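Recap slide: CDGSH iron-sulfur domain-containing protein NEET-like, sequence and predicted structure.
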Amino acid sequence: MAILANTFGMGVSYAGQVPFRRVTAGEVGCKQQRMVVVRAEGGGGGGINPEIRKNEEKVVDSVVVTELSKNITPYCRCWRSGTFPLCDGSHVKHNKANGDNVGPLLLKKQ
């Protein structure tokens, strides 16, 4: 299955085959797993954020939600998190290396 994806013009894209893990005879009842690898491509200076709120040290937005299991849940916006889609703080290293200011989206329980 071939896929070509682009995320809102932010330089994040994937093109290629989506690999499937085949179920063997000993795994009857198990579902096939699909894995997609996403790679971030920054514009010009290697940053993910080319123009949004560049006057801020780090762009972080918060959204208040009434039904969450945790008080605060950070979602990755740098595409480098090892726990994607959740933020693991990888943006800190990315920001220092590229002079970028990308930060997580914070969902906060009301």
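Residues 43 and 82 are 22 Å apart (CA to CA).
The mean pLDDT is 74.
(End of recap.)
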